[in-house]
């Protein structure tokens, strides 16, 4: 075994021994560690500074109790988290997730991914993530507000515009960010730059809501065009029907593709003539109903995973949740004819699924590059708040487009430098890792 391989495996083994039960976090680290041997080999300083061991240990994990009384007078207790993982590139930045599956492993994997994603944007932001095992599904506005107020009553002392700037993720949209900000303001006074993804009337940025989905399509379009293809006349499957999925579907349609299926956690709709995104928005974004309520003359609803669909399509855009595509589902996607998988969700593909994409020469856009448009636009929101300005939609969208193109160019150039062909996963990981690791070395042992 080479010195660098030996170093990588020693650090991983130690991490595994210390927390074997944190499977999602270990998976995210394994996926990164599988790809960085060439840079560790090239730069002995990474071993000298023990960068990998420094990198996998969060700078701080805040865990707290979130007690709240619901409308019926029942007292509920949830767990709250904020993982402040790495600040080498700037203040901690990353979303909040409210979902019953939330635990420390999921928070750590998301924060770990965020470090590298944020670095790829080229903007001065470190990596963090937070959330709660609170389930917002089916809750009234009053219950959501009470939970958010209690959550922020603790979180407010750990965040700030120069320290840590949370935003949304699964289960946290503009409504939740609004309630969280209201409580922050009661406790600390006006400080608009402390949260992003705010409603527009509360100094949020135009274009933030659409940014992750639009950014995914901009990034994927760059990747397709670099390989002589485009969205034009392509059949596309998008998982999820939340924030990222809806704006992905919208932009794919603008780019000439047809989205034939989308899903929620219960099932999926299939419509060969294309999803009616206006109807989808009405059902999911406005009325917060189940996807089974979507009905047109040509649509069919089925229970189960969308990745079990047996139809021919060209491009798969997973936009729901982690590990939604395992090896068998990846095989099905390939058998259905898809030549491109590009990720809107964080870590939607297992390591075995990724290996299968690579064996079958599937064009693969890894999440940390492909879905970076949301956090990039959050940083544009921070810039607007800090300069007491409000940019027109066109300005935000142009900046987002330029950032996504720049991310693809950086990844592509790294592929050229390291002779990786179009292995964009390794290109993205190496480009992101070197940025963060070099910044850490400049700052010494901190
Ligand atoms: N909102 C943002 O700006 C960003 C979100 N992401 C990632 O995108 C993904 C989706 O997030 P959002 O759209 O913001 O959340 P959301 O809460 O608006 O929507 C989540 C969607 O995923 C579906 N879903 C959740 N669990 C599922 C499961 N086990 N199986 C199938 N479907 C499931 C839900 O039904 C819903 O349609 C997540 O992985 C998130 O981390 C990534 C970058 C930024
Ligand atoms: O907008 C942000 O700060 C965070 C977005 C996010 O959570 C993500 O990129 O996964």
Describe the structure.
The chain is an alpha/beta fold and 446 residues long. The chain has 3 domains: 1-56 and 424-446, Glutamate Dehydrogenase, chain A, domain 3 (Glutamate Dehydrogenase, Chain A, domain 3, Orthogonal Bundle), CATH 1.10.285.10; 60-190, 3-Layer(aba) Sandwich (Rossmann fold); 210-361, Rossmann fold (3-Layer(aba) Sandwich), CATH 3.40.50. It is built from 17 helices and 12 strands. The strands form 2 sheets. It has a 7-stranded mixed β-sheet with strand order 9-8-7-6-10-11-12, sandwiched between helices. Strands 1-2-4-3-5 form a 5-stranded mixed β-sheet. Helix 6 links the parallel strand 3 and strand 4. Helix 12 runs parallel beside helix 13 and helix 15 packs across helix 16. The radius of gyration is 21 Å and the shape is globular. 1,4-dihydronicotinamide adenine dinucleotide (NAI) binds next to helix 10.
Query: Unreliable runs, pLDDT <50, ≥5 residues?
Result: none
Beta strand count: 12
* DSSP helical segment count: 17
Question: What is the helix fraction of residues, given as a range?
Answer: 40-55%
C-alpha end-to-end distance:
30 Å
Known CATH architecture of the largest domain: 3-Layer(aba) Sandwich
Evaluate the radius of gyration.
Answer: 21 Å
Tell me the major beta sheet: 7 strands, mixed
SS strand fraction: 15-25%
CATH topology of the largest domain: Rossmann fold
| Run of helices and strands | HHHHHEEEHEHEHHEHEEHEEHEHEHHHH
């Amino acid at each position: 075994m080479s010195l660098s391989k030996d170093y990588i495996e020693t650090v991983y083994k130690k991490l595994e021994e210390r927390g074997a039960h944190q499977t999602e976090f270990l998976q995210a680290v394994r996926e990164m560690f599988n790809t960085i041997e060439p840079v560790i080999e090239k730069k002995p300083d990474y071993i000298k500074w023990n960068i990998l061991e420094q990198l996998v240990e969060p700078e701080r994990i805040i865990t707290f109790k979130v007690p709240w009384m619901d409308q019926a007078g029942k007292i509920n207790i949830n767990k709250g988290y904020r993982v402040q993982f790495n600040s080498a590139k700037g203040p901690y930045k990353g979303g909040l997730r409210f979902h019953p599956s939330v635990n420390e492993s999921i928070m750590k994997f998301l924060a770990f991914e965020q470090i590298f994603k944020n670095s790829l944007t080229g903007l001065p932001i470190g990596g963090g993530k937070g959330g709660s095992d609170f389930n917002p599904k089916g809750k009234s506005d009053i219950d959501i507000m009470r939970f958010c107020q209690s959550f922020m009553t603790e979180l407010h002392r750990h965040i700030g515009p120069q320290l840590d700037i949370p935003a949304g993720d699964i289960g946290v949209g503009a409504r939740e960010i609004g309630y969280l900000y209201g409580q922050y303001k009661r406790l600390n006074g006006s400080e608009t730059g402390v949260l992003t993804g705010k409603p527009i009337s509360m100094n949020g940025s135009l274009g933030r809501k659409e940014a992750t989905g639009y950014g995914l399509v901009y990034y994927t379009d760059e990747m397709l065009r670099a390989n002589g293809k485009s969205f034009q006349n392509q059949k596309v499957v998008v998982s999820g029907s939340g924030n990222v999925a809806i704006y992905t579907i919208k932009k794919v349609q603008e780019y000439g593709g047809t989205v034939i299926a989308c899903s929620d956690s219960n099932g999926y709709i299939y419509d060969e003539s294309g999803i009616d995104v206006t109807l989808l928005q009405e059902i999911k974004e406005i009325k917060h109903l189940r996807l089974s309520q979507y009905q047109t003359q040509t649509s069919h609803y089925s229970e189960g995973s969308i990745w079990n669909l047996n139809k021919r399509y060209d491009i798969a855009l997973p936009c729901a949740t982690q590990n939604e595509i395992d090896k068998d589902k990846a095989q099905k996607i390939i058998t259905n004819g898809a030549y491109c998988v590009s990720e809107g969700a964080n870590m939607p593909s297992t390591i075995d699924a990724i290996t299968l994409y690579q064996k079958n020469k599937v064009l693969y856009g890894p999440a940390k590059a492909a879905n970076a448009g949301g956090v990039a636009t959050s940083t544009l929101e921070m810039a607007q708040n800090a300069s007491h300005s409000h940019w027109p939609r066109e300005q935000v969208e142009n900046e987002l487009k330029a950032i996504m193109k720049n991310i693809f160019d950086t990844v592509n150039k790294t592929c050229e430098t390291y002779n990786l062909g179009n292995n964009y996963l390794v290109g993205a990981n190496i480009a992101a890792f070197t940025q963060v690791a070099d910044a850490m070395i400049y700052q010494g042992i901190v």
